[in-house]
Amino acid sequence: MSRPEHQAPPEIYYNDAEAKKYTSNTRIQSVQAELTYRALELLNLPEDEPAYLLDIGCGSGLSGEILDEEGHMWVGMDISPAMLPEVALDREVEGDLFLQDVGQGMGFRPGTFDGAISVSVIQWLCNADRSSHNPKSRLTRFFSTLYSSLRRGAKAVFQFYPENDDQCELLMNTAMRCGFEGGLIPTEDGKPKMPKALGEDGEDEPNVVAYSSQRTQERQRTKGKQRKSIKEKDWVLHKKEVARMRGKKNIPLDSKYTARKRKPKF
């Protein structure tokens, strides 16, 4: 099967039919959720407070739904008109959405976000879809403006499907020249391939960090439960305030009964 980025630019490839098919596919939903949980694990955000995150290439908001369930606020950006107005808005996702080509950079104020994630996006920037496109220049613009938009010490996690080693090297070198530090975690069959720990099987790998998937599995078992048990009323009040700011109607008024558990009916 040919790679999507070889068939057409993303704003054309993800047309109305492809956008709806992508969003309704249960396997894609499952993979997207697993990759988003993995990205959150690597971001290593504080668990006792919500973060303000950027979802790069948010599509129809599948990743954003996970961010929302985990109690975070987020902004999503995507180049496909079919994904954003046609699907994401119809699904009433919680994040704020921008229709934008990430290869042109992003105009957020410095230090805006507590972290950023990107699922299956940045490999598209390695292609020149137009005569004016230069992959190296577009990647430099992307990484430099993203680095500026993150607060000091914040992390960004990118999941992508490189076509070859040259693409990996191009992406890694460009990101590091723009200020990022970090490494690459290979995957097998869509699942993270864990690097061997230092000295395992007699191999000396001082520059490799071994990550555990235990936290991801724990998130999937208890997602949302810990957040609600810690400060359920604050969370409900925040969600109602966000809904009012977005102009939604019929939002219940705040009262002493807000978020109070109801007695079971017999």
Structural account:
This protein has helices at residues 4-7, 10-13, 16-24, 26-43, 62-69, 82-88, 135-149, 165-177, 214-222, 225-245; strands at 52-56, 73-78, 96-99, 113-119, 150-159, 187-188, 191-192. It has 266 residues and is of the alpha/beta class. It folds into two domains: 4-189, Vaccinia Virus protein VP39 (Rossmann fold, 3-Layer(aba) Sandwich); 224-266, no CATH class. The strands form two sheets. Strands 3-2-1-4-5 form a five-stranded parallel sheet. The protein has a two-stranded antiparallel ribbon with strand order 6-7. The chain starts with a helix and ends in a 21-residue tail after the last helix. Residues 54-132 form the Methyltransferase type domain. Keywords: Cytoplasm, Methyltransferase, Nucleus, S-adenosyl-L-methionine, Transferase. Residues 190-264 form the 18S rRNA (guanine(1575)-N(7))-methyltransferase Bud23 C-terminal domain. It is found in: Cytoplasm; Nucleus.
Mean pLDDT over the full residue set: 76
- CATH homologous superfamily of the largest domain - what is it? Vaccinia Virus protein VP39
Helix fraction by DSSP (H/I, runs of at least 4): 40-55%
Number of domains: 2
The count of β-strands is: 7
Order of strands in the sheet with most strands: 3-2-1-4-5
Architecture per CATH nomenclature, i.e. the level-2 architecture of the largest domain = 3-Layer(aba) Sandwich
Element pattern in H and E: HHHHEHEHEEHEHEEHH
Task: State the name of the first-level CATH class of the largest domain.
Answer: Alpha Beta
Overall outline:
globular
User: What summary fits the major beta sheet?
Assistant: 5 strands, parallel
Number of helices: 10
Pfam family, one: Methyltransf_11
Region (Disordered): 183-233, 247-266
InterPro entries: Bud23-like (IPR039769), Bud23_C (IPR022238), Methyltransf_11 (IPR013216), SAM-dependent_MTases_sf (IPR029063)
GO molecular function, one term: rRNA (guanine) methyltransferase activity
